[in-house]
């Protein structure tokens, strides 16, 4: 028997669209035992939220998220607002006994995130952070192959997330579209926005980071405030590069920037082990590159695996071999896993607690970027 | 004011899923003035169609498509059944005054398709054939670039559609999953299934084909009937290769097979003109390769355009630069264009009449494959 | 004991440079038992041939190839002049008891080539045609893998050779740099120049062609004569596309043109068999693409083999893994194999007789291009 | 009038072959005014050096390099021996008035290299270090494009040199083939061997490095001595990763390892500027990737420039468009430039003095790898 699960969405921006799509589509492709229902959406801008509600078929809308958190007909709160609002909402939702799902990063800092973890654990509610790239089938395949020992001892982990959309000094900070450039709303720049993804995947696949040193830079020192039009200092990091040592003895290099011309959503990762290597690129998200050292010498090479077959993770639910899926499917998969977790009481990762670790590493990166010192974690 | 458009789906297989997804999602991303509603689905297998209806939220189901065609609450009939059933259903639906959308190819032969064209034109109902690859943003971008003259005079058009799923002699013919190998149901093999896509795109982009010669082959001469388990002769073409002359003076080469190991949905196309060339590969459907001869000599090359920006066709409706979309989005785009066509009374292509031309070329290919002669069209 | 082998080169153009490089370098890298010595070069233009002789260290020069063929101190004649001169020179050289190496194609037609075969066989002299692409290590690896059965039954063979250097109508015909556009000198256009390479490789790897049909085209009907400056009709084929059936039951498609913008030396080939596929591209000549169907399903894909390891064909003689070699190395390898053939009396392929088969197929292509009929070979 | 230049080679290993090939071939393709003659080769192993001399046509041989340095008939000394011998030989050669060319790195440390610089400058002899990758045509094209301002302000420089040949603990240290693992002979591991190449190119293209922090690692702590067979501690760095700040304000990341399975000679570099980006990969050494932001939005992308045209650096001397060259050609180009430098008295870069800077940065990397501190340069 399929149960209904009523979703209360907070926000109507880019991420709210991606999540709404996932809640809507999951039942069409996955049999999780739950059917999510878009019950309500909350945001202050009444006319914008109405337009959003109509497009997606939300049954109702609220202008204050606090009202929604209180509603008895809401089972799960999905937080799709800027980072500075995650903590307050999540804690209130947990206290109201709702399941809570938060966009990443969990919070602006580890300190801010810790009470969120406490709140959901105290309330005993299902909770998850939307580090969606774990659910890209190619990334999941990499995770499975590493876990099954195909690479042997790991020597290197390497990840980058490169973009180019803030190169112009005319891009403002703050506001609906550019809050990610405002340190108060975002907490940090590329570290929390982009490196956080790289770190979440890395820790998941390669285990904990034990120490690191970082270089951070703000190329453009002043930008207009989107609200006031006045110049004000830029508080975020425009670029960050990090050297890490993992607990398993391997070395890591991480880099993120919004000043790498030609890279749009350039998240790439690579892992080198004794027996082989694996690599992935978000721009070609359906492909895994695999170097298998066990193949006979003259026939060895990097195998380009098109991850679209029925025996690839999640793919049996979609189309037929050769037909690719896109970015938003990673969210649909995450919803499917979340619902499985609710059904089986084996929570889907990353929970708030697991995601807090990424905040901890982000904090260390920003600190090292200032101090120039190695930080032990 | 958004109007409701009630969809009657016939079939519950692979294509019915892709179409249902498109009807469902279009309103979330496109503002067409219509909101499709999944009103009913029809198929003979009652339990399977019930499962399908539940997954997708169809409001009702029918075990006989004839009943659905008669229902007053259905606005549009969407035909997702094997090719041998297209004509009868489409004609009945047109006569009942319904909009009609048919999976490709329009029919098994030009002769079978002609009355379908007559029926929809006589009834004056909106009609369209699901040659979905026209609506892949990268393919649409190619169309626009060719039309705008970026390539100049065209010399060559080249397309292939390669697969490898029927190499095993154990694959049967007929039945739910393998009707494409049964000549009675499918009409032909790779010609109508795969080359038809290549031809539809080619004619759309490069104009009419004036003559051709073809080679066809059936590698495996007998296969089991999926229903009876008895061996019976294979009537379809396993592979086809074609040389063509286009009306614009350019030369074409086309090839399709289900015996090209390593190719899953290997639809590739390339156009060479005086000023440049364009190429596309379905496995990387978000990319266009463009060689622009107007660039300074030492800096010329093939530019890999990642078709994910807001100013690329359809992409402004989806995510942000760098985030790719998948196969099924082409259907959503086709629905969006179909609805725009209904609203504006400028029918979205290809209509039944336009799609009939592809059947005509397919017939010529099969005839030439037998005769060994050039055929003038 | 290393023996000296005295080379008499005829011609000083592009191919004479590539061959001279091979004769010079072979002893530095390969231990064949012979040390080629650049003894003499012959051509009518005394000052140009002197410049060439100085650059390459030829010990002497001749203005008439007939003198060189008579010289007692010459062991081998290497023919690097336009196609219309191959026959006369080769026959004279054979009659003088010299080893004879001819640039490809052997002759303009099978009829012209037949007496060349007779002459070298009657004289019992070593002979070879410079179909150099067989000796690209990646192509040799493909040959070895196909022969060892890695692909199983072959279904498809596909090759193209695309260029774009004659698109401008201002390119003349005839003369030193553009004799390939003059049908009298070249015999044909892309068929003898480019397809001949594709056919030589195809027959070598996949066996004989039993029948074919072809389409040929001359896009630009008149060009200036490089000598007289007067317009005259173009007698060559600018483009050719061919459908073939191989004796082993597989299907072939071949295409060549000089009107494919963006392709420089675009020789690509692909073979599809039951167990796997192999592909190669001259622009990346150190790479083989291999799809191995025997790999576990979820890890299957196209493996990009970088053919630079010591256990790859010829590579043990060059650098270290990862360091690529270039176009001219294929000639050095061919010289090494030729000298091995001389030493062991197992002639290196393709001999004149073997290369005559390619002329036979080229003749059939040109005939079919005119008649529109299938030709049995 | 072409002058003869007599070369005295020291060493007969891998690099001696690459250099000998360059000295031999340069006159065949480049008109520099000089014709190098392989006059003598020196090494202690008499039989091996004889074999080498015969293969390459060296006119004479010496068992002690000191004798060769004294010979009046030698114009230039080319040092192709392990790093620990560079200084003594180079200084002696300079003092004897010879031109001196040294394999890279100049020396094991800046301190060791400084007297070499002094010696050649005091003697006033032509001198050069074989950082050959500057002369890969694609890399030279990048240099020219950056210099011409195509990228605008530079934000990021990124380079890696990845290999995988020392992963097995059975690889010994010391000896002919593996001296690069012996810290006494090599001075360092990947830093001096591989990163030195990356740094030389980076400084050449992007200007000086002002500060850096590094992480270094030795994965395998003990290896057999190739001479004695006894285990001894490994003194080299197996892997190094570096964060840098360039004087022009851009950020750099560098990484090198011999533990990246699947990478053979994996030197890659990328530069991101305001107006565009450029990238290169040694495995595809004839290609440059260029992202040109000035192109119209919908047609922007990474252009894959096949660097084989007559108007590309050095390429006018080789074959025709589309035909690639290999690794060793970079040395031939360097010889051509060196000889031009001698003729014009404008020394070809990098001179000993210029190459000393790379040693200085390598020293800083090794120091930071130990201290964990940023180092100002």
From TrEMBL, chains A, B, C, D:
Q: Give UniProt keywords alphabetically.
A: Oxidoreductase
**SUPFAM superfamilies, alphabetized:** Glyceraldehyde-3-phosphate dehydrogenase-like, C-terminal domain, NAD(P)-binding Rossmann-fold domains
State if RNA-binding is listed as a keyword.
no
The organism named in the record is Devosia oryziradicis
InterPro entries reported for this sequence: Gfo/Idh/MocA-like_OxRdtase_N, Gfo/Idh/MocA_oxidrdct_glycsds, GFO_IDH_MocA-like_dom, NAD(P)-bd_dom_sf
Question: Which is a Pfam family this sequence falls into?
Answer: GFO_IDH_MocA
In this chain the Gfo/Idh/MocA-like oxidoreductase N-terminal domain maps to 5-129
The name on file for this protein is: Gfo/Idh/MocA family oxidoreductase
> In this protein, which residues make up the domain named GFO/IDH/MocA-like oxidoreductase?
141-278
